[in-house]
Design a protein that fits this description.
mainly alpha, Lysozyme, Membrane-bound Lytic Murein Transglycosylase D, Chain A, 3 domains, three-stranded antiparallel sheet, two-stranded antiparallel sheet, elongated
Length: 323
Protein backbone atom coordinates (compact mmCIF):
# COMPACT_ATOMS: atom_id res chain seq x y z
CA UNK A 1 0.00 0.00 0.00
CA UNK A 2 1.28 3.50 -0.91
CA UNK A 3 2.62 5.50 2.02
CA UNK A 4 0.14 8.34 2.86
CA UNK A 5 2.93 10.96 2.74
CA UNK A 6 4.14 9.74 -0.62
CA UNK A 7 0.58 9.65 -1.92
CA UNK A 8 0.09 13.31 -0.82
CA UNK A 9 3.32 14.35 -2.58
CA UNK A 10 2.21 12.42 -5.68
CA UNK A 11 -1.05 14.39 -5.79
CA UNK A 12 0.74 17.72 -5.40
CA UNK A 13 3.17 16.99 -8.22
CA UNK A 14 0.72 15.57 -10.73
CA UNK A 15 -2.46 17.53 -10.01
CA UNK A 16 -1.81 20.84 -8.27
CA UNK A 17 1.54 21.95 -9.78
CA UNK A 18 0.41 21.57 -13.42
CA UNK A 19 -2.56 23.85 -12.70
CA UNK A 20 -0.31 26.52 -11.15
CA UNK A 21 2.25 26.29 -13.94
CA UNK A 22 -0.46 26.56 -16.58
CA UNK A 23 -1.93 29.60 -14.79
CA UNK A 24 1.48 31.28 -14.54
CA UNK A 25 2.27 30.54 -18.16
CA UNK A 26 -1.07 31.96 -19.22
CA UNK A 27 -0.40 35.15 -17.22
CA UNK A 28 3.04 35.62 -18.70
CA UNK A 29 1.77 34.90 -22.18
CA UNK A 30 -0.98 37.48 -21.70
CA UNK A 31 1.59 40.10 -20.68
CA UNK A 32 3.76 39.28 -23.65
CA UNK A 33 1.03 39.80 -26.24
CA UNK A 34 -0.22 43.05 -24.71
CA UNK A 35 1.47 45.49 -27.07
CA UNK A 36 1.94 49.20 -26.56
CA UNK A 37 -0.08 51.55 -28.73
CA UNK A 38 1.67 54.49 -30.35
CA UNK A 39 -0.03 56.88 -27.91
CA UNK A 40 1.15 54.81 -24.93
CA UNK A 41 4.69 54.69 -26.30
CA UNK A 42 4.83 58.48 -26.73
CA UNK A 43 3.41 59.06 -23.26
CA UNK A 44 5.96 56.70 -21.73
CA UNK A 45 9.06 58.17 -23.39
CA UNK A 46 8.24 61.85 -24.01
CA UNK A 47 10.05 63.06 -20.89
CA UNK A 48 13.36 61.43 -21.70
CA UNK A 49 13.06 62.66 -25.31
CA UNK A 50 12.73 66.26 -24.10
CA UNK A 51 15.63 65.84 -21.65
CA UNK A 52 17.83 64.52 -24.45
CA UNK A 53 16.77 67.42 -26.69
CA UNK A 54 17.75 69.92 -24.03
CA UNK A 55 21.10 68.27 -23.46
CA UNK A 56 22.11 67.57 -27.05
CA UNK A 57 19.97 69.74 -29.34
CA UNK A 58 18.25 66.87 -31.16
CA UNK A 59 14.52 67.69 -31.61
CA UNK A 60 12.38 65.69 -29.20
CA UNK A 61 9.96 65.06 -32.08
CA UNK A 62 12.73 63.36 -34.06
CA UNK A 63 13.80 61.26 -31.08
CA UNK A 64 10.23 60.10 -30.43
CA UNK A 65 9.45 59.52 -34.11
CA UNK A 66 12.58 57.43 -34.59
CA UNK A 67 11.78 55.49 -31.42
CA UNK A 68 8.24 54.77 -32.65
CA UNK A 69 9.37 53.82 -36.14
CA UNK A 70 12.49 51.81 -35.33
CA UNK A 71 10.96 49.88 -32.41
CA UNK A 72 7.42 49.39 -33.71
CA UNK A 73 6.17 51.48 -30.76
CA UNK A 74 8.33 49.44 -28.39
CA UNK A 75 7.00 46.08 -29.60
CA UNK A 76 9.74 44.87 -31.94
CA UNK A 77 12.04 41.97 -31.06
CA UNK A 78 15.00 44.32 -30.69
CA UNK A 79 13.03 46.56 -28.30
CA UNK A 80 11.57 43.72 -26.23
CA UNK A 81 14.63 41.47 -25.99
CA UNK A 82 17.45 44.01 -26.23
CA UNK A 83 15.89 47.35 -25.18
CA UNK A 84 17.17 48.68 -28.52
CA UNK A 85 14.63 51.30 -29.60
CA UNK A 86 16.62 52.91 -32.42
CA UNK A 87 17.91 49.98 -34.44
CA UNK A 88 21.55 50.88 -33.72
CA UNK A 89 23.94 48.19 -34.93
CA UNK A 90 27.09 47.11 -33.10
CA UNK A 91 29.71 49.09 -35.07
CA UNK A 92 32.42 49.71 -32.41
CA UNK A 93 30.19 48.52 -29.56
CA UNK A 94 31.87 46.62 -26.69
CA UNK A 95 28.73 45.87 -24.66
CA UNK A 96 26.08 43.16 -24.87
CA UNK A 97 24.70 42.33 -28.31
CA UNK A 98 21.88 40.58 -30.08
CA UNK A 99 21.75 39.12 -33.61
CA UNK A 100 18.80 39.94 -35.81
CA UNK A 101 17.89 39.78 -39.50
CA UNK A 102 17.81 43.26 -41.02
CA UNK A 103 19.44 44.32 -44.30
CA UNK A 104 21.28 41.01 -44.08
CA UNK A 105 20.75 37.85 -42.03
CA UNK A 106 22.07 37.69 -38.46
CA UNK A 107 23.30 41.27 -38.14
CA UNK A 108 24.78 42.46 -34.85
CA UNK A 109 22.78 45.02 -32.82
CA UNK A 110 23.50 46.72 -29.51
CA UNK A 111 21.78 45.37 -26.41
CA UNK A 112 20.97 47.63 -23.43
CA UNK A 113 19.97 47.07 -19.82
CA UNK A 114 17.04 49.52 -20.02
CA UNK A 115 15.13 51.44 -22.72
CA UNK A 116 16.51 54.65 -21.19
CA UNK A 117 20.04 53.46 -21.94
CA UNK A 118 18.99 53.11 -25.57
CA UNK A 119 17.80 56.73 -25.61
CA UNK A 120 21.06 57.96 -24.06
CA UNK A 121 23.13 55.98 -26.56
CA UNK A 122 21.06 57.22 -29.50
CA UNK A 123 21.90 60.85 -28.62
CA UNK A 124 25.55 59.99 -28.07
CA UNK A 125 25.66 58.02 -31.34
CA UNK A 126 24.38 61.00 -33.37
CA UNK A 127 26.59 63.46 -31.54
CA UNK A 128 29.83 61.54 -32.02
CA UNK A 129 29.44 60.40 -35.65
CA UNK A 130 30.94 62.92 -38.12
CA UNK A 131 28.33 62.21 -40.78
CA UNK A 132 25.62 63.66 -38.51
CA UNK A 133 27.63 66.71 -37.37
CA UNK A 134 25.91 69.11 -39.80
CA UNK A 135 22.50 68.31 -38.29
CA UNK A 136 23.47 70.03 -35.03
CA UNK A 137 23.64 73.32 -36.93
CA UNK A 138 19.86 73.08 -37.40
CA UNK A 139 17.44 74.40 -34.82
CA UNK A 140 15.34 72.03 -32.74
CA UNK A 141 12.24 73.38 -34.49
CA UNK A 142 13.50 72.13 -37.86
CA UNK A 143 12.26 68.55 -37.63
CA UNK A 144 11.93 68.35 -41.42
CA UNK A 145 15.60 69.29 -41.84
CA UNK A 146 16.59 66.66 -39.30
CA UNK A 147 14.43 64.00 -40.94
CA UNK A 148 15.90 64.63 -44.38
CA UNK A 149 19.40 64.94 -42.96
CA UNK A 150 19.18 61.59 -41.17
CA UNK A 151 18.10 59.92 -44.41
CA UNK A 152 20.85 61.60 -46.44
CA UNK A 153 23.47 60.63 -43.84
CA UNK A 154 22.44 56.98 -44.17
CA UNK A 155 20.69 56.33 -40.86
CA UNK A 156 18.24 54.00 -42.64
CA UNK A 157 18.07 52.41 -46.08
CA UNK A 158 14.33 52.93 -46.63
CA UNK A 159 14.05 55.57 -49.40
CA UNK A 160 10.93 56.98 -47.68
CA UNK A 161 12.55 57.19 -44.24
CA UNK A 162 12.48 61.00 -44.04
CA UNK A 163 8.83 61.23 -45.08
CA UNK A 164 7.84 58.47 -42.68
CA UNK A 165 9.38 60.46 -39.80
CA UNK A 166 7.72 63.71 -40.91
CA UNK A 167 4.30 62.06 -41.30
CA UNK A 168 4.58 60.44 -37.88
CA UNK A 169 5.55 63.76 -36.26
CA UNK A 170 2.71 65.68 -37.85
CA UNK A 171 0.02 63.05 -37.32
CA UNK A 172 0.88 62.83 -33.61
CA UNK A 173 1.73 66.55 -33.13
CA UNK A 174 5.16 65.62 -31.78
CA UNK A 175 6.50 69.02 -32.87
CA UNK A 176 4.88 70.43 -29.72
CA UNK A 177 7.65 68.83 -27.68
CA UNK A 178 10.28 70.81 -29.63
CA UNK A 179 9.23 74.14 -28.06
CA UNK A 180 11.76 75.40 -25.58
CA UNK A 181 10.55 77.26 -22.49
CA UNK A 182 10.26 81.02 -22.93
CA UNK A 183 13.66 82.63 -22.31
CA UNK A 184 14.55 85.70 -20.32
CA UNK A 185 13.73 89.19 -21.61
CA UNK A 186 16.05 90.33 -24.36
CA UNK A 187 17.09 86.82 -25.33
CA UNK A 188 15.98 84.63 -28.18
CA UNK A 189 12.99 82.39 -27.67
CA UNK A 190 12.94 79.21 -29.74
CA UNK A 191 9.37 78.22 -30.54
CA UNK A 192 8.40 75.55 -33.02
CA UNK A 193 6.16 76.54 -35.89
CA UNK A 194 3.16 74.33 -36.54
CA UNK A 195 2.88 72.54 -39.86
CA UNK A 196 0.38 74.00 -42.31
CA UNK A 197 -3.19 73.54 -41.12
CA UNK A 198 -2.15 72.46 -37.62
CA UNK A 199 -2.12 75.53 -35.35
CA UNK A 200 -0.14 75.49 -32.13
CA UNK A 201 -2.18 75.89 -28.96
CA UNK A 202 -2.40 79.30 -27.30
CA UNK A 203 0.60 80.37 -25.24
CA UNK A 204 -1.02 79.51 -21.92
CA UNK A 205 -2.52 76.18 -22.98
CA UNK A 206 -1.36 73.19 -20.93
CA UNK A 207 0.08 71.11 -23.76
CA UNK A 208 2.07 68.71 -21.62
CA UNK A 209 3.65 68.60 -18.21
CA UNK A 210 7.22 67.44 -17.92
CA UNK A 211 9.76 67.38 -15.12
CA UNK A 212 13.38 67.95 -16.06
CA UNK A 213 16.47 68.40 -13.92
CA UNK A 214 17.36 71.75 -15.46
CA UNK A 215 15.98 74.31 -17.85
CA UNK A 216 18.20 74.70 -20.89
CA UNK A 217 17.93 78.18 -22.34
CA UNK A 218 19.20 79.83 -25.50
CA UNK A 219 21.07 83.08 -26.14
CA UNK A 220 22.21 83.99 -29.64
CA UNK A 221 21.31 80.50 -30.80
CA UNK A 222 23.57 78.84 -28.20
CA UNK A 223 22.42 76.57 -25.38
CA UNK A 224 23.26 77.37 -21.77
CA UNK A 225 22.12 76.61 -18.24
CA UNK A 226 22.15 78.59 -14.99
CA UNK A 227 24.57 77.25 -12.36
CA UNK A 228 22.88 75.88 -9.24
CA UNK A 229 24.29 75.41 -5.72
CA UNK A 230 27.04 72.79 -5.73
CA UNK A 231 27.74 73.02 -9.47
CA UNK A 232 31.29 73.17 -10.77
CA UNK A 233 32.63 73.16 -14.31
CA UNK A 234 33.87 69.63 -13.64
CA UNK A 235 30.47 68.36 -12.45
CA UNK A 236 28.61 70.04 -15.32
CA UNK A 237 31.05 68.62 -17.85
CA UNK A 238 30.32 65.14 -16.48
CA UNK A 239 26.56 65.76 -16.44
CA UNK A 240 26.45 66.91 -20.07
CA UNK A 241 29.08 64.44 -21.29
CA UNK A 242 31.67 67.07 -22.14
CA UNK A 243 35.37 67.25 -21.39
CA UNK A 244 36.23 69.71 -18.65
CA UNK A 245 38.50 71.57 -21.07
CA UNK A 246 35.59 71.86 -23.52
CA UNK A 247 33.15 73.47 -21.11
CA UNK A 248 35.71 75.95 -19.77
CA UNK A 249 36.73 76.84 -23.33
CA UNK A 250 33.08 77.33 -24.29
CA UNK A 251 32.80 79.84 -21.43
CA UNK A 252 36.16 81.61 -21.93
CA UNK A 253 37.46 80.79 -18.44
CA UNK A 254 40.61 79.00 -17.20
CA UNK A 255 40.37 75.28 -16.48
CA UNK A 256 40.77 76.02 -12.75
CA UNK A 257 37.97 78.64 -12.68
CA UNK A 258 35.35 78.55 -9.95
CA UNK A 259 31.63 78.83 -10.61
CA UNK A 260 29.13 81.00 -8.75
CA UNK A 261 25.44 80.23 -8.32
CA UNK A 262 23.41 81.99 -11.03
CA UNK A 263 26.19 82.19 -13.62
CA UNK A 264 25.49 81.33 -17.24
CA UNK A 265 27.28 78.18 -18.39
CA UNK A 266 27.31 77.58 -22.15
CA UNK A 267 27.08 73.98 -23.32
CA UNK A 268 28.50 74.70 -26.77
CA UNK A 269 30.88 77.16 -28.37
CA UNK A 270 29.59 80.73 -28.41
CA UNK A 271 28.91 82.65 -31.64
CA UNK A 272 31.33 84.95 -33.47
CA UNK A 273 28.96 87.92 -33.31
CA UNK A 274 25.89 89.06 -31.43
CA UNK A 275 22.23 88.35 -32.20
CA UNK A 276 20.46 89.95 -35.14
CA UNK A 277 18.93 93.30 -34.17
CA UNK A 278 21.49 94.13 -31.48
CA UNK A 279 24.40 96.11 -32.89
CA UNK A 280 25.84 97.82 -29.79
CA UNK A 281 25.84 97.63 -26.00
CA UNK A 282 26.47 100.44 -23.50
CA UNK A 283 28.44 99.12 -20.55
CA UNK A 284 27.19 99.32 -16.98
CA UNK A 285 29.02 99.83 -13.70
CA UNK A 286 31.35 96.91 -12.94
CA UNK A 287 30.80 95.03 -16.21
CA UNK A 288 33.75 93.16 -17.70
CA UNK A 289 34.51 91.89 -21.18
CA UNK A 290 33.65 88.41 -19.93
CA UNK A 291 30.28 89.58 -18.58
CA UNK A 292 29.31 90.96 -21.99
CA UNK A 293 30.64 87.89 -23.77
CA UNK A 294 28.39 85.70 -21.60
CA UNK A 295 25.41 88.05 -21.82
CA UNK A 296 25.31 87.98 -25.63
CA UNK A 297 26.79 84.53 -26.29
CA UNK A 298 29.81 85.94 -28.18
CA UNK A 299 33.33 84.53 -27.99
CA UNK A 300 35.70 86.77 -26.01
CA UNK A 301 38.31 87.05 -28.75
CA UNK A 302 35.66 88.13 -31.26
CA UNK A 303 34.08 90.83 -29.13
CA UNK A 304 37.54 92.19 -28.33
CA UNK A 305 38.47 92.19 -32.02
CA UNK A 306 35.29 94.15 -32.85
CA UNK A 307 36.31 96.87 -30.36
CA UNK A 308 40.02 97.63 -30.85
CA UNK A 309 41.71 100.28 -28.72
CA UNK A 310 39.32 100.01 -25.75
CA UNK A 311 40.84 99.54 -22.29
CA UNK A 312 40.84 96.14 -20.62
CA UNK A 313 38.94 97.67 -17.70
CA UNK A 314 35.66 98.92 -19.09
CA UNK A 315 34.28 102.25 -17.97
CA UNK A 316 30.52 102.66 -17.47
CA UNK A 317 28.87 104.16 -20.55
CA UNK A 318 31.35 102.69 -23.05
CA UNK A 319 29.58 101.83 -26.31
CA UNK A 320 30.73 98.47 -27.63
CA UNK A 321 30.01 96.81 -30.95
CA UNK A 322 28.53 93.37 -30.47
CA UNK A 323 27.79 92.62 -34.11
Amino acid sequence: MLNPCLYKAFCIVFYILPVNVAFAAGTLSGERVQELSREQYIERYKEIAVRQMQRYGIPASIILAQGCLESGNGNSRLAVEANNHFGIKCHDWEGDRIYHDDDAAGECFRKYHTPEDSYYDHSDFLRTRPRYAHLFELGTADYKGWANGLKEAGYATNPRYAQLLIDLIEMNRLYLYDSYPHTEAGEEAVVAEAPSGMPLPAKDDDVFTISVERRVRITNGKRYIIAAPGDTYRSLAAEYRLFRGEITRFNDVPRSAGLAVGEKVYLERKAKKGPVGTATWTTREGETWHDISQRFGIRMKNICAMNPGIEDTLLPGTVLRVR
